[in-house]
Amino acid sequence: MAVYITTPSPALPPPSNSVGVLGWMRKNLFSSPANSIFTLIGLYILFRTIPPTIDWALFQADWVGTSRDACSGEGACWVFVTVRFQQFMFGFYPPSEYWRVVVAFSLVGALVAWLLIERTPKKGLVGIFTIFCYPVIAYFLFYGGAFGLPVVETYKWGGLMLTLILATIGMFCALPIGIILALGRRSSMPIAKSLSVVFIEFWRGVPLITVLFMSSVMLPIFMPENLQIDKLLRALIGIIFFQSAYMAEVVRGGLQAIPKGQYEAAEALGLSYWKSMFFIILPQALKLVIPGIVNTFIALFKDTTLVLIIGLFDLLAVVQSAFADAKWIGYSVEGYVFVAAIYWVSCFSMSRYSQYLERKLHTGHA
Amino acid sequence: MSNSKKQFWWNNAQHRSLFFQVLLVALLVGFFWFIGSNTLTNLERRGISTGFGFLSQVSGFGIIQHLIPFDETYTFGRTFLVGLLNTLLVSAVGIVFATIIGVVVGVARLSNNWLIAKLAMVYIEIFRNIPLLLQMFFWYFAVLRTLPAPKQSWSAGDVIFLNIRGLYLPEPIFGPGFNFVFWALGLAIVTTLFISRWAKLRQEQTGKQFKTMTVGAGLIFGLPTIVFFLADASLSWNVPALKGFNFRGGITIIPEFTALLTALSIYTGAFIAEVVRSGIMAVNSGQTEAASALGLHKNRILKLVVIPQAMRVIIPQLTSQYLNLVKNSSLATAIGYPDLVAVFAGTTLNQTGQAIEVIAMTMGVYLFLSLSISAFMNWYNKKMMLVER
Amino acid sequence: MRKITWSIVAVVVALFISAGLAQASTKDEVQKRGYLQCGVSTGLPGFSNPDEKGTWTGLDVDVCKAIAAATLGDATKIKYVPLNAKERFTALQSGEIDALVRGTTWTLTRDSSLGLNFTGVNYYDGQGFLVSKKLGVKSALELDGAAVCIQGGTTTELNLADYFKEKKMEYKPVVFDTHDATAKAFDNGRCDVLTSDQSQLYGLRTHLSKPADAIVLPEVISKEPLGPVVRQGDDAWFNIVKWALNAMIEAEEMGVTQANVDEMKKSKNPGVRRLLGVDGIGGKGLGLNDDWAYQIIKQVGNYGEIFERNVGKGSPLQIERGLNALWSKGGIMYAPPLR
Fold first, then answer.
1. ipTM of model
2. Which CATH superfamily is domain C26-124+225-329 in?
3. How far is residue C333's CA from residue C119's CA, in Å, rounded to a whole number?
4. What are the residue boundaries of the structural domains of chain A, listed by start?
């Protein structure tokens, strides 16, 4: 009887030099002589930088103490940061009122998380609360002056708290202005269109620092003499104008991405311009541009450091002013690293989130 | 109209849009009138002088880096020029370095070498997520401070010196007859350009290749050299030397410039790297495969297929990165580099007190720079598009 | 839609109306507001400096306190507005602050073309040089070719240029925005010399990593009378700020101190009685309470006290009185009589 083998014999294992750690290294690190050289250079750079950095920042570092005496000088002295931590976070905000800041930020954190996480109920209600009620609550928490909360003048605000306030308020107010500008730029009315274009191009064409100079130095000259505008508010006005121009361009990108059929369909239904925008076009466009909005927010968040040049004490400014303390001369690297770490963690996680959104939205519209 | 129902004027879309625009213009005029009248009242009441007369007043202060002759006897108008040129200098050099870094890192990011790709990624993620101002402070106050004092300068062959006060290079002094050399150089460059056009045309028509590179290099280096000897031009060097506390003579690259340039190039380079990566990724892999199926060499695929297509994606984004770099150079004021904002919107504003004029001029400059860069890039972009089709 | 339009119009109209309102005098405004807005530096030891808790102290700060004590009767009712050299005048011109006490030099240009008025001098200063001991320099005349760290937007920048030009010496100006950055760059060795008003040099020296390694050169290259500044055109307020300072100087001359001011109220000396508002014109001319000067001395102290406390023997700065001693003790501090 002839024996027919109906199943193919099992595949031989791949050659030993193409599997496992060795195979992976061969393929990804040493595929050609040039590549091998690059790999070796890369390894050398890593070897020269990583161990000393970790050693400096962690193993040799001093963590506990209350004064400069706690610093051994072998590695980083994080005591500098821990001693002044509260000031770095809250500026000159009175310590007895710190809880107000914490509550305000926790609340907004919870609200935003609610809106961002999928499958949470009553998003609409929470959204309306965030947009209309939260700003009022936050105002009274930060500034006080009602419900028995003592007033804390804005010049006492500082540190990370001020950075966050500038960035979030700047963003919050710039979005609606940006939407109106974007609609204006795509409008068929020639005057509205050209005004929007001029506004957008003007603010996008000048550096933020001159905008801040202008708002801090020139705004008071533009306003009636008896109209006092707080220094923080002036900086904010500048930031909002600046930011709204960038926002307008992001929103415009979204508007352009909506197929023409949507506009035509809305018109065919007899919807007015504003109705078709609010109920048909903008909801789609804004969803598309969320990653772009997050990216502009990251840029703004980093740019808020510039307010130190006009004399506001944001995180970087507070840390820098701490370097001038005679008791702590010579610990600037620790301070800079601390600030850099805060910014890096925030910006990196936000950019990851925006990439995640981009991927998610991308599959939906493929 | 046959419709018996009365038509209100606002039911007509055209009328409505006209009304809306008139209202807009009225609001705008009102707004500017409001600002203008406030400003005039305020200026008058506070006795602040106005007008651009201050530009011809003597400034009375010194500036450490000036590309055109300047000392305290020059006018405020001159400080404007000095600051502007310093801004342009750092922006131009910054754009070059940022582009180099960006392209190298962007390509490295796509390398098939795992380690190199990851290192590039780490570079990008670190530097673009930390505020530029912080990076500038870091380079200036934390890194450059490790350089030695002038007396302990590091030197290369006793002609180049590096210390905390800057990098000192020998300065060429062109003797008489040297302008012929410059003319020769210009001529050589122009000729090379013509040759390369001619060679391209000939190749398109006949398929014959011409070694433009070799000939061009020969011309550009050779012609000036020959003229140099023929014209009996003399070239001497002004070598920096330590006199008193500091080096004198030669060209000084001040550390403020270095710190600003480093921060700008590294920061913008990280963004450009991402632009380059996204540009290359945007080229469909089918294109590369098709090109290699045609038997093109790897380098030629890159040059003829990938890069031209990637450029279309890259250029608009690259433009905005360049614009950002120019605008970001204004942070110079924080570390003492005498750019336009530091010199003009800073010192000059303070000495004259004329905030409106000074800020308006400063903003005008940046606006002009931004608009011209984007206009140039739009033109270039259009050209690239046409070549494509 | 129309509703929105109308509300915008309403807001604009409201703004116009508010623009037309008459402007109140600074004194009334301060009293109505309940606190004084005082422009100070962003941090200069001895003159105006916030500590870890954000409490401001210094000679300039004490002048702010004196103004508040005179106007409001309470030296703590102050909002300090930290300003850098660039923004200080605009802040005052725009009304963001009521008085600027920030080591500002009294010059003709500033007094005449910026819409400002200087009310007096609270510290007679002069520009000097801080150098590292290692440099081995004994006089400013040896500074040819030096790199000089300097704060931008100040008169020092102009004086420096004048001085080096006059002495036919070269220099490299390295200009920064803030005292901190200037001191830090000098500390890092970016410059050979740091120049500023001498008073500030002593303060900045305490910010160096090795203060003992730096010395202040003997040369004083300029006159820098530093004083409080107010807006032009409000004479009542100008007088209050001027006399708040004069009262402190007068008090020192009379020997009235924070500690003995209550006793001194019973003094027979007519000058003292006038100063403390027991007799004489009191606060009528200024539109203040009669005890305005008493409040200043009680809550802040006399000039000698605030000097020693902030910059003199009672402070790390250890500055000698020098020119700032009373006219009767070899200085030039002189207050017109309070009568």
1. 0.84
2. Periplasmic binding protein-like II (3.40.190.10)
3. 14
4. 22-59, 79-93+155-364, 96-151
What is the CATH topology of the domain spanning C127-222?
D-Maltodextrin-Binding Protein; domain 2 (3.40.190)
Nearest to A300 by CA among A286, A314, A282, A321: A314
- Cβ neighbour number for residue B234 with a 10 Å cutoff: 12
Q: Can you tell me whether residue C48 is helix, strand or coil?
A: strand
| CA atoms of C76 and C67, how far apart (whole Å) | 11
Contact A316 B133 (CB under 8 A): yes
Alpha helices in chain A (DSSP H): 20-28, 33-54, 79-83, 85-90, 98-116, 123-128, 134-142, 159-185, 190-205, 208-213, 219-222, 231-257, 260-268, 273-276, 282-303, 315-323, 332-364
Which residues from A are below 8 Å from C42, CB to CB? 311, 321
CA distances from A50 to A39, A53, A94 (A): 16, 5, 40
Closest chain B residue by Cα to residue A295: B129
Of B27, B164, B351, the CB nearest to C189: B164
| Contact residues on chain B for A208, CB-CB shorter than 8 A | 327
* The two three-digit tokens of residue B264, written as one number: 């700008």
Reported as a single tens digit per residue, the pLDDT across A104-161 is 888 888 888 888 777 778 877 888 888 888 888 888 888 877 777 787 877 778 889 9
End-to-end, the C-alpha distance of chain C in Å comes to 67
The 10s digit of each residue's pLDDT in C77-102 is: 998 888 877 778 878 877 788 999 99
Chains in touch with B (3+ beta-carbon pairs under 8 Å) read A, C
Domains plus CATH for chain B? 76-148+255-388 (1.10.3720.10)
In terms of Cβ atoms closer than 10 Å to its own Cβ (0-12, 13-18, 19+), residue B322 is buried
Say whether residue B84 is in contact with chain A using an 8 A CB cutoff: no
Tell me the C-alpha to C-alpha distance, in Å, between residue C325 and each of B202, C141, C300: 90, 29, 18
Q: Which two tokens stand for residue C82?
A: 């930290």
How many contacts (CB atoms, under 8 Å) link A and C? 76
Say how many CB pairs under 8 Å bridge A and B: 143
According to the CATH classification, is domain A79-93+155-364 in 1.10.3720.10?
A: yes
- Neighbouring residues of B362: CB distance < 8 A, sequence distance ≥ 6: A210, A213, B340, B341, B344, B345
Residue of B338 and C2 predicted with greater confidence:
B338
CA-to-CA distance for C157 and C150, rounded, in angstroms? 7
Residues 200-259 of C with CB under 8 A from B: 231-233
Burial B148-172 (b: 16+ CB within 10 A, else e): eebeebeeeeeebbbbbbbbbbbee
CA distance B309 to C151: 51
**Which residues in chain B land under pLDDT 50?**
1-2, 388-389
